[in-house]
Amino acid sequence: MDERAKIRVTPHYSKDLPSHVDIVIIGSGITGTAIAWNLLKHVRPGEKGFKSIVMLEARQACSGATGRNGGHTKAASYRSFLEHASSLGTPAAVQIARLECDNIQAIHAFAKKHNIPCDSNPCHTIEIIYDQA
Q1: In whole angstroms, how far apart are CA 9 and each of 48, 55, 61, 86, 131?
Q2: Which helix (H) or strand (E) holds 35?
Q3: Is the pTM of this model over 0.85?
Q4: Is there a contact between 22 and 55 (Cβ–Cβ < 8 Å)?
Q5: Binning pLDDT at 50, 70 and 90, where does residue 34 land?
Q6: What's the rounded Cα separation, in Å, for the pair 120 and 106?
Q7: Which runs of consecutive H residues, i.e. helices, occur in 41-133?
Q8: Spatial distance between the Cα atoms of 110 and 99, rounded to a whole number of angstroms
Q9: 27, 29, 54: which is closest to 39 by C-alpha?
Q10: Using CA atoms, how far apart are residues 97 and 27, in angstroms rounded to an integer?
Q11: Which of 1, 57, 59, 3 is nearest to 28 (CA)?
Q12: Model confidence over 72-126: pLDDT tens digits?
């Protein structure tokens, strides 16, 4: 088990937590931080429409799956496309697949643009799916 995953979840809390916020983000991994970034990137505190945001994390920032293996950014629409098409229709399934691909490209572009020291390595992959039949 990764050492970060062994960090015990403890009842530590900030004494400075507000009694009311507009938005609570649970988790500081790639999804939580992307949500926070996109909510905050065009708004300045004190401006009309500014929302108060709190991010909650069980351990340390990015100590969960993102910190252990967040470099595995890969679209896997082939696994869910038919189910989405069946339940939501083909146009919605296509939209979901495009969103997956766009998000992966955006993650790599963000890391590059902001000089984030990580192993971002966009590449082509292939998967072989087989069964015993």
Answers
A1: 37, 16, 13, 40, 39
A2: helix 30-40
A3: no
A4: no
A5: confident
A6: 11
A7: 65-69, 77-88, 90-113
A8: 16
A9: 54
A10: 24
A11: 57
A12: 677 778 788 999 999 999 999 999 999 988 988 888 898 899 898 877 777 777 7
For 42-56, write each residue's pLDDT tens digit. 777 677 766 788 888
The pair of three-digit structure tokens given for residue 64, joined into one six-digit string: 């969960």
Q: Which residue is listed with tokens 């990764």?
A: 2
CA distance 58 to 9: 6
Give every CB contact of residue 37 below 8 A, 6+ residues apart in sequence: none
Burial of 28 (0-12, 13-18, 19+ CB in 10 A): buried
